[in-house]
Amino acid sequence: MIRVGEALARWTTLGVGGPAERLILAETERDVIDAVRDADDHGRALTVLGGGSNVLVGDDGIRGDVVRVGHRGVELTHDGSVVRLTAAAGEPWDAVVQRAVDDGLAGIECLSGIPGLVGATPVQNVGAYGQEVADTVVTVRVWDRVDRTVRALSPAECAFAYRDSAFKRDPTGRCVVLAVTFALTPGGAPAVRYGELSRAMASQPATLRATRDTVLTLRRAKGMVLDPADPDTRSAGSFFTNPVVSKELADAVEALVRQGDGSATMPRWEAPEGRVKLAAGWLIERAGVRRGMRLGRAAVSSKHALALTNPGGDCRAEEVVALAREVAARVFARFGVTLRPEVVALGVSDPLWG
Ligand code: EPU
Description:
Radius of gyration: 20 Å
Bound molecules: uridine-diphosphate-2(N-acetylglucosaminyl) butyric acid
Shape: globular
């Protein structure tokens, strides 16, 4: 089905964004491939949209064709000690997690309550509470727009990193995700590694179901589970990635914070190559940005400083960009740390994404 000039605001969780020149609602894998081929054959710009939960669409909308991936389906195959779960790109992610937990399959339970569709999960290597899809992805089935064929990519070809992958790094969007296969462990123990999750689970047996329920409770408290009744959830999740900095900079930031507030313990995690990952939400608050702060009609979530929201539902993308710039500028002025957006900009050109 093709809709001309449809506003994309209703196709994104943030609820902002102008029209798509043409919005193609693909219901089958064939529809997706045909729509992509058609755009490529006619030299029209192509944007692939999943659940719209990690994007900021500009007020002028998107030129060319926007293909909204909507094909469904989940298949399980037993393979020795693992179960391979293959989900179509248009399958809602959380339904897949729920299915895995219901079937006693370990590997993605900490990724409960994350909005969006399966096809986006390898693109930004979705992660939470110490787990990420890179831990379990075994194959990503894609349409290759250059070779014009369907290919099965290995995890090495996906080159996963923190909230990043070869798909996200490729400015040409060569590969369109059609389906993802995860290797899950029947009867496996849940991954309870993240401090906040371990503490919340301490009083109960660590089952897959208890882990899922606890993650959902934690995420709800941060406004990170979609709920039409909660304006704090009208967001695109974490707006920025957690900055990964040199040890020297991390130590300098920690010293700065101690000077201002002797009692503060700065959250920090070891990252590859001796670097240190800092908590963007924590830095944002210490840079003087209050939860709930507004600039125009855009707001910092009242539950988590890392999420920017559209509380009234009438915000423009340019207001979200202005707020994001203000937040990043304050963090840079206070700590010398550069925040980079996690949210993908579509039809927005701003140095923040430079
Ligand atoms: N914190 C604050 N103030 C805030 C928010 C957080 O001081 O407003 C502190 C917390 O107390 C904690 C630290 O910052 O000490 C980290 O916060 P949190 O555990 O909430 O996690 P996060 O680093 O802000 C990341 C992911 C989330 C994921 C959670 C849980 C990124 C960019 N974000 O958030 O993912 O759900 O961990 O694992 O990596 C997303 O990617 O959209 C997302 C929501």
